[in-house]
Specification:
It is a single chain. The protein has 8 helices and 9 strands. The mean pLDDT is 92. The strands form 3 sheets. A 5-stranded parallel sheet has the order 2-1-6-5-7. A two-stranded antiparallel ribbon has the order 3-4. Strands 8-9 form a two-stranded antiparallel ribbon. Helices cover 32% and strands 19% of the residues. It folds into 2 domains: 151 residues, Alpha/beta knot; 55 residues, Orthogonal Bundle (Trp Operon Repressor, Chain A). It has 232 residues and is α/β, with parallel strands linked by helices. A hairpin with a 2-residue loop joins strand 8 and strand 9. The structure holds adenine. Adenine binds next to strand 5.
Length: 232
């Protein structure tokens, strides 16, 4: 998979993609992330990428020319499955969308800044708009890093343990059960006996019940589809 991220602050994206899982994905040739500085595409003599709003009002708007040129250049080089605009007024991002996007080959993520991009960019190029939550960030970069991370870790071979992405919270519509590691007792706090029993059937049942309980308590909205199941 290839992800191209378009931004006016490329420095903000250096950290997230040069570490751990994402770096390993790159080294294994499973995913590559290319960050493009929109300013490099500006034909303006001062390399400006934003301008005042028509009609007046506070805040600058990202201009059409540099973004359009950058997207058109990329689209000439390869076909993109989606051109995604990161924006607080997009569809709220969920695991199901990450799963779907992880099956694609080439994606563009456009990061907004200031008041956002000229609406004609959205009309002409954007095929999907994503918000990572009901709050406003100072730009789309952190949101793009979140989306790219959540997609890349799903690509088979990226995680060491092939099954671990499948047992994440949300993958079966439920939150994950609690987990423990050594020691079996810490200052009087004990690991649940069943997890030490070696009885895999009992352990599986316990985890399922705990996942149901946790989902019911913390995210009843996720629980809707599993209402006929009971917790102990
Ligand atoms: N840009 C600013 N806020 C955002 C959000 N919540 N999600 C995606 N992009 C954004």
């Amino acid at each position: 998979m290839r992800i191209d991220i378009l931004t006016v602050v490329p420095d903000l994206l250096e950290g997230p993609f040069s570490h751990s899982i994402l770096q390993r994905a790159h080294e294994k040739g499973l995913a590559e992330v290319h960050v493009h500085n929109i300013r490099d595409y500006s034909t303006d003599k001062h390399k400006n990428v934003d301008d005042y709003q028509y009609g007046g009002g506070a805040g600058m708007v990202m201009a059409i020319q540099p973004i359009a040129d950058c997207i058109e250049k990329l689209q000439k080089e390869r076909d993109y499955d989606e051109v995604i605009y990161m924006t607080p007024d997009g569809e709220v991002y969920e695991q199901s969308r990450a799963n779907q996007l992880s099956l694609h080959k080439n994606l563009i993520l456009l990061c907004g800044h200031y008041k956002g991009v000229d609406e004609r960019i959205r009309e002409r190029f954007i095929t999907m708009e994503i918000s990572i939550g009901s709050y406003v960030l100072s730009g789309g970069e952190l949101a793009a890093a979140v989306v790219a991370d959540s997609i890349i870790r799903l690509i088979p071979g990226v995680l060491n343990n092939e099954t671990s992405a499948l047992t994440d919270s949300f993958q079966d519509g439920l939150l994950s059960p609690p987990v423990y590691t050594r020691p079996a007792e810490y200052k009087g706090m004990k690991v649940p006996e069943v997890l030490l029993s070696g009885n895999f059937k009992k352990i599986e049942d316990y985890r399922e019940q705990e996942a149901l309980k946790r989902t019911r308590q913390r995210r009843p909205d996720l629980f809707k589809g599993t209402e006929n199941q009971t917790t102990k």
